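Quick illustration, no need to memorize.
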Amino acid sequence: MTSTTEQFADVSATTLLRFATAGSVDDGKSTLVGRLLHDSKSVLTDQMEAVEAVSQARGQEAPDLALLTDGLRAEREQGITIDVAYRYFATARRRFILADTPGHVQYTRNMVTGASTADLAVVLVDARNGVIEQTRRHAAVAALLRVPHVVLAVNKMDLVGYEESVFAAIAEEFTAYASDLGVPEITAIPISALAGDNVVDPSANMDWYGGPTVLEHLETVPVSHDLTACPARFPVQYVIRPQSAEHPDYRGYAGQIASGVLRVGEAVTVLPSGRTSTIAGIDALGQSVDIAWAPQSVTLRLTDDIDTSRGDLIAPSASAPATTQDVEATVCHVADQPLAVGARVLIKHTTRTVKAIVKEIPSRLTLDDLSQHPNPGQLVANDIGRVVVRTAEPLALDAYADSRRTGSFLLIDPADGTTLAAGMAGESFASKAQAAGQAAAADEEGWDF
């Protein structure tokens, strides 16, 4: 029988990396992604034939690899990325889920969507232009979303003669800025996405660079998570009561473990009611087990017949989160209609959705220089700001810095179900001290997602 230690070792040694690309317009994000897909042999023959046909119709001699990701017709016509393009590919060492996000300022909300679940963000910079406002904006978004690893890809090195001094100056400026924001780990790589330098294969034109290629770094960056160190959180999705002749008294609470580990015999608290019980059994894939961990989907059975339903959160009594009806958070506004003080909204946190009202909007963040605009009164599309929301019922939120899963929420328009804003509970940016500790944790134990 496999020991508990061996089970955790197998689970934490994940082979999946979620990453997002970001950068200003024409920095070459789509070309980089296309080069990654093409040179790692992750492009189907018919896809490549379609790209070659479009490229020839435009009079281009070589295939435009950016077309592998710019799938919308408007994107191809304008030569820009508008929507978040998700791509799935794999190498012998790891599987990848890639989110290619737009570079325009008005699509900041799209980057938030793409980076919200990312383990790593690739921020592209045009070597000719260096660090610009949009570069700082994307670094700030990555810091806000607590993305643990950031790659600075200094692109178009072929257009600056592959000069080491150009790369070094850009890397130094960006690293200083991102470190001040609290980004725990930054890796700078000089590349030419168009020519393929340092994307999948090492460059013959930059012998002064001895670091990894983009793909090599993606394949080796640590993304393991110490599941035993995270407080367990189990949002209830569904109550199972078959009431059949075979199972007349069965009552189970089904859902996906958001973080941590749950064990049979462990004392737990059901939130927001605060009622306590003990885990009597855990059912996974039709079998009873003694232990389960994130992100497994399981059914819990409790020793006490207490009122528990969808939206409740089951957590170990020793580490249960506090409940609150006053949620202070940073939000990115994603809807076209403004979010104003006094607005009545729905707040969706894990499997729980409750009514709420926006009490305050203390400030709006200016990402260009990270200044705070006090009391703006409302947030419009792509704005990032601080809000205070009063909920009709208590919520069991963690700080987003502690758990990206149970520290995040959505604000929803109750009239038509439109998503208004994506929220992150707690403080905005990590301090330098926090970032140093988080970087060490990322290397040794991994972050809690």
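The chain has nine helices and 25 strands.
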